[in-house]
Amino acid sequence: MIKQRTIQKSVQTSGVGLHNGEKVTMTLKPAEVDQGIVFRRVDQKKNHEVKISPDAVKDTKMCSAIGEDTSRVATVEHLMSALSATGIDNIIIELNGSEVPIMDGSSIPFIYLIQTAQIKEQDAPKKFVLINDVIEVKDKDKWARFEPYEGFKVDFTIDFPHPVFDESTNKVVLDFYDESYITEISRARTFGFMQEVEYLRANGLARGGSLDNAIVLDEYKIINTDGLRYNDEFVRHKILDAVGDLYMLGYSIIGNFKAYKSGHELNNKLLLALLSNKQSWSLTTLDSKDPKTSNLATRYINSKSGILNQSMAGVYQ
Ligand SMILES: [Zn+2]
Predict the structure, then answer these.
(1) CA 78 to ligand 1 centroid distance, Å
(2) Three-class HEC string of the chain
């Protein structure tokens, strides 16, 4: 039986918010079985907690933000991505501000943090969302779709009218039961365009953005002097974001996520469409002794992404 997971002990880190530019301290704490992923604002007295769910997402402009007013937390997607990759079901995330720190713009600092806290298996079956039918959402030429699949696969394509992007680096397909999230995705950083920075800052966004936490592009090229971490880092970061956005379900997905130019807004719309089509999915558990789910359970146990203890081995060498 695949079990639910939390962390063994509390861990803390601090940094600045990408958008509000403010310093914030974040503490990850263990949580009970079935408690889920809970964000808690410790700088507020009232209405300061939000449990993640697709409905908890209130803003998708340049990041995924949950809650409102005193419970609002922005830029949750990179931390959510790390929680998805490490299979954490139950955790409390305390913040003394309204935004998760951006760290280096990727999810690897959060993977390290979770590894420091150590993963703890809990005495209850882990629940998965099994995709039974195709669900699709569209916005002009952009689209995002779930299809049934025996595993967790992501197939993502981007297209930006900019000389740095070309067809050879615009698409990545990964089956996370066969390939490692940590080596393939976790180091991909967020990116932005110089031309948009002034507009974003005038609107209270990107105030903490710098070359230390983002890839920045001018009209023709990448400004960061140390270049890219992957030659297709942009699409890999969009996958990092999508893995985090999809984990707003609170459950790992068994299915194939396909997307063309999708972002936080469309990723969230896909989850809402899924939840409102009750015949298109079901909750399941995985047990290697149950003939119906034994294949998937074995693949999950052996996967490089699903089990942190195994997948971390390659990172620290
Ligand atoms: Zn991102």
Answers:
(1) 6
(2) CCEEEEECCCEEEEEEECCCCCEEEEEEEECCCCCCEEEEECCCCCCCEEECCHHHEEECCCCCEECCHHHCEECCHHHHHHHHHCCCCCEEEEECCCECECCCCCCHHHHHHHHHHCEEEEEEECCEEEECCCEEEEECCEEEEEECCCCEEEEEECCCCCCCCCHHHCEEEEECCCCCHHHHCCCCCCEEEHHHHHHHHHCCCCCCCCCCCCEEECCCCECCCCCCCCCCHHHHHHHHHHHHHHHHHCCEEEEEEEEECCCHHHHHHHHHHHHHCHHHEEEECCCCCCCCCHHHHHHHHHCCCCCHHHHCHHHHC
Distance from residue 188's CA to the centre of ligand 1 (Å): 9
Euclidean distance between CA atoms 302 and 164, whole angstroms? 37
pTM exceeds 0.85, yes or no: yes
Divide the 317 residues of the chain into consecutive groups of 10 and give the mean pLDDT of each group: 94 96 97 98 91 96 92 96 95 97 97 93 96 98 97 96 92 92 95 89 88 94 94 97 97 97 97 97 95 91 60 37
pLDDT of residue 199: 86
Q: Among residues 168, 182, 144, 172, which one has the least CA distance to residue 271? A: 144
Domains of the chain and any CATH numbers: 3-125 (3.30.230.20), 128-316 (3.30.1700.10)
Q: How far is the CA of 290 from the centre of ligand 1 (A)?
A: 38
Strands 91-95 and 37-41, how do they pair?
A: parallel
Residues designated catalytic: 264
Distance from the CA of 241 to the center of ligand 1, in angstroms?
Answer: 5
Indicate the burial class of 163 (C-beta count within 10 angstroms; 0-12, 13-18, 19 or more): exposed
CA of 245 to the centre of ligand 1 (A): 10
Q: How far apart are CA 6 and CA 103, in angstroms?
A: 22
Residue pair 285/128 in contact (Cβ under 8 Å)? The answer is: yes
pLDDT value at position 197? Answer: 86
